[in-house]
Description:
Layout: H1 3-13, H2 19-30, E1 34-37, H3 42-54, E2 59-63, H4 70-83, E3 87-90, H5 94-104, H6 113-131, E4 137-139, E5 156-159, E6 164-167, H7 175-184
Parallel strand pairs: 1-2, 1-4, 2-3, 4-6
Antiparallel strand pairs: 5-6
Amino acid sequence: MTNQEQIKAWNRQLKNKSPQEIITFFLDHFKEKIALSTSMGLEDQALTHMISQIDKKAKIFTLDTGRLFPETYDLIDRTAKKYKITIEVFFPDASDVEQMVKEKGINLFYDSIENRKLCCHIRKIKPLMRATRNLDAWITGLRRDQSVTRKDMQTVEWDENNHLIKINPLIDWTEEQVWDYVNRFNVPVNPLHKKGFASIGCQPCTRAIEPGEDVRAGRWWWENPETKECGLHKR
């Protein structure tokens, strides 16, 4: 069975299954070859809680770009201690960052989409490649209603860029469902969410959203919605 055939079979098999059932299925299937990639956002915190209840030894990693909010660093520490888990942190290559800043400036991402994508590539995509090097699959907190770039995503997909199976247990959930979950189980979340920050990334590239705006309107707000992906999920 090819990857695409297997993915289609899994999507049929797991249709209408709960996120916990999906996570349990793939943790059992891939063993040590699967990990949750967390940005410490609302969805990823819900998934971290679910995984901690299923298998505390399951791999969880995050990417420290060097430009995160102080609240995000605090959340990494609080989450690891609360659930007694290890959250592995991957950093960008220092020489890559130094060369980029030398050539383009410290806040190059405001100057052009090309510069912004370069910054994301060095600070996020290359560390992700190292984080997933020995994996067969990764779990993400993607939801269809987060943005126009995610509306066609499925529970299980083939990630051609990283040559991995990508699993999205919350793909069908609404933002309200995620909030209900984290409130019900007292899951630690970034305090910036209560200040209007719906989607939280690097500090210079994230702002609070206004009422009625798309949940990812605060990410790279100076760009068109169609370009607003860092490249981790659509490249």
